[in-house]
Amino acid sequence: MATAAAQTTSWFNGRTFESWREEFDRCGYLIFERVLSTAKVAEIRAALAPHLARDMKGRNDFEGERTNRVYALMAKSPVFAELAIHPLALAFAEAELGESCLLSALLAINLHPGETVQPWHFDDSGAKIPRPRPPLGVSTFWAIDDTTEQNGATEIIPGSHLWDGQFVEGAVRPADFAGKAADRETGDRADAVKLAMPSGSLAITKGTLWHRGGANRSDRPRLIITPQYCAGWIRQLENMALAVPADLADKLPERARELIGYSIHPPFMGHVDGLHPRKLLRPHAT
Q: Are 97 and 138 in contact (CB under 8 A)?
């Protein structure tokens, strides 16, 4: 059992970690309800508030032109590091990817009313390795707001993590990163499931699972935070070494520092001039 898994039994409802992993392997996703306290959710909202107040909208159809995305959260408040190293999320990331896994991305996604569905995609698609294959990433979704059928809950296709390279109608295209693809096919599917869950809940998905952000047909925004993990030998989506300055990295919990790259994937991937990267922060370390 991975290191973090030993701290997670209170969320398993009497089931073993192994049984949850079997479900994860079969379905490609899991939901754990009300993991965070209302006080912690309020702390997260307060930390995000000044960044959301800038009301910076997405630049293209993939990010969402009616969506706020706040990147580089590890550098913005210690509360986001707590989410990235939460033992429940890490238990499944480490079991899937190994304890040398890295934090690939850490961002907030705030869908405003009127936002349309995102193109279908899977999060480890940057690794151009033919499917079917084991996932090279694990994505987690922390519901800060309740996520519902109406306000844009993430949509997933159960079991699609096992698919080969088959075409998915409404899948992401290069044009979706260039602007608004108004004429694209939405690709609505009868086999899709919306990850509806109350505030404070956690959804975990395999990097090969097809999913998309839903359409917000409500009159209020829908806010989630998504830490995403990758195998220790895969390039991260966010350049964490630049996103988190060294003086801030030095103040992070040790596990958070390891996740952003102050660590080694055996035997020596990630070294700096032949040394462990933590020695750049703590030259006296042995």
A: yes
